[in-house]
C-alpha cells in the first residue's frame, strides 16, 4: 500500500495523498467503473479486455472525461473497485471531487491534482458503498431534502424521434396525470452543439414552452452548450465562445 498516511476507520481505512496505490491478488478480475456524469458508463468491466473507445469521437465529451477518452487503462471518476473473492469488493473512493481511480491486474490506484482523503475497504459491495456514502456526507455535507418533481421526458417514449406536433398531442394527453415537468429531450436541435430548433419545430421552442406552461407544467429542455463539434460553423453575428488550442 502506498499513501502519505493511513488511519483505520469504521469499515475500512482512510488514506491521504494526491496519489495512492493498493496491491491486490485478484488478477484480471472485474473492475467497477463510475462515470463523471449521467451519460458515463457505470458498470463492471473485465480487466481481461482493453477499454473500448467511445465512438463517434464527437460523443466523447458527452460520455466521459475527454482527457481519458482513449486511455489504455480501465478507470473511472472518483471511485472504483475490483471484484474479490466470494462476491466481495476491494474499493477505493475519493472523499473530495476531482479524482480518478484506475485498476490493472496488480493494483488499484487513485490520482488527484490536490491532497485529499480516500476511503479504502474490502467487503460486500452494498455495505462498502453505503459506508462510503456516509463518509462523503460527513465530508461534503448533506443538502436539505427537497421533493423530487415528477417528470415526463420525451426520451423514454420517443428517443430522438420527436416533433412539435407530436409533443403537443402528447401534452394534451397528459392532462389529469400527476406530472409537474414536461421535459423535451434530444431530437429538437439542429445538431449536437447547434442548439437551435430544427425543421420539426417550426414555431420554435419558446412557443412550445408557453404551451407547456399553459397546461400547468414546468417546461424542460435538454441542451449541452459546451458540447461543440469542431466542424460546427459559427453562428452569424455570434462571437466565438469556445476557446481554441491557442486560447482564442
What does this molecule look like?
The protein is α+β, with helices and mostly antiparallel strands and 248 residues long. The protein is built from 5 helices and 16 strands. The protein has a 7-stranded antiparallel beta sheet, covered by helices on one side. Strands 3-10-9-6 form a 4-stranded antiparallel beta sheet, with no helix packed on it. It is elongated and about 60 Å long. The mean pLDDT is 89.
Number of strands: 16
Helix/strand/pairing class, anyone?
alpha+beta
**Average residue-wise pLDDT:** 89
Cα-atom Rg, whole angstroms?
22 Å
Sketch the topology as an H/E string, one letter per element. EEEEEHEEEEEEHEHHEEEHE
Strand content: 25-35%
Low-pLDDT residue spans: none
Lateral arrangement of strands in the main beta sheet: 1-2-11-8-7-4-5
Supply the key terms.
single chain, 248 residues, alpha+beta, seven-stranded antiparallel beta sheet, four-stranded antiparallel beta sheet, 5 helices, 18% helix
Chain-wise SSE layout:
Blueprint: E1 5-9, E2 12-16, E3 19-23, E4 30-33, E5 43-46, H1 60-63, E6 74-77, E7 79-83, E8 89-94, E9 99-103, E10 107-112, E11 117-123, H2 125-140, E12 151-153, H3 154-158, H4 164-173, E13 181-184, E14 189-191, E15 194-197, H5 205-214, E16 218-221
Parallel strand pairs: 12-13, 13-16
Antiparallel strand pairs: 1-2, 2-11, 3-10, 4-5, 4-7, 6-9, 7-8, 8-11, 9-10, 14-15
